[in-house]
Write a structure and sequence with these properties.
By secondary structure, this protein is mainly alpha-helical. It is built from nine helices and no strands. The protein has one domain: Orthogonal Bundle (Tetracycline Repressor, domain 2), CATH 1.10.357.10.
């Protein structure tokens, strides 16, 4: 491996380490409480390379972490929704995975996008990034509902309701340190999609 390739690979690894560390911290403690020194310490990457990769500082790094984490979650949502059994079974699996992850983290790891959005939505770049990420999740939900036979307009409305319910369930579960709110959302959605005809 040449020196230039080695430097480029090392640089990419450092950049990703900053993004990953920021994603974890934003998910756990939000934007304001996350400092650059803490990000550097958690990442293990050289402090001097932070502004090389992110000349815009903390905000640019936070936006990159939101995009990265958002895409990881979108892919996870898509994979769960693609499994057989229809909308009710797919949504139940998705909520069970979210509840298990929240419980395993000691109720520290909420939705990284919601956590930052609630705190920093007055910052337009943050709001726009959150809107884009949420839109990708909604698109996956809409596609799954349409594949289950629901008319597109109804699928759009229903996907908004589903995402709002899940996000609210995550917030309540963190506050109560109890997965009960997510389980209630799961059970109500299962009944809704099992009892209400598509469209």
């Amino acid at each position: 491996m040449s020196d230039s390739v080695r430097r480029r690979t090392h640089g990419q690894a450092s950049r990703q380490a900053f993004v990953d560390a920021t994603g974890v911290l934003l998910r756990r403690q939000g934007y304001a409480a996350t400092g650059l020194s803490e990000i550097v310490a958690r990442s293990g990457a050289p402090k001097g390379s932070l502004y090389f990769h992110f000349p815009g500082g903390k905000q640019e790094l936070a936006l990159a972490a939101m995009e990265h984490t958002g895409e990881q979650l979108r892919a996870g949502i898509a994979a769960l929704l693609a499994q057989p059994g229809g909308a009710a079974a797919s949504l139940s699996r998705l909520i069970d995975v979210l509840a298990a992850g929240l419980e395993a983290s000691g109720y520290r790891d909420g939705c990284p996008i919601a956590t930052v959005t609630l705190e920093a939505s007055g910052t337009e770049p943050v709001r726009l990034t959150a809107e884009r990420v949420f839109s990708t999740w909604l698109a996956e939900l809409e596609a799954a509902l349409e594949a289950d036979g629901m008319e597109p307009g109804a699928a759009r409305r229903r996907s908004l309701m589903v995402l709002a319910a899940i996000e609210g369930g995550l917030v309540l579960a963190r506050a109560r340190r109890d997965t009960g709110p997510l389980e209630a959302v799961r059970d109500e959605l299962r009944e809704l999609f099992g009892a209400v005809p598509a469209g």
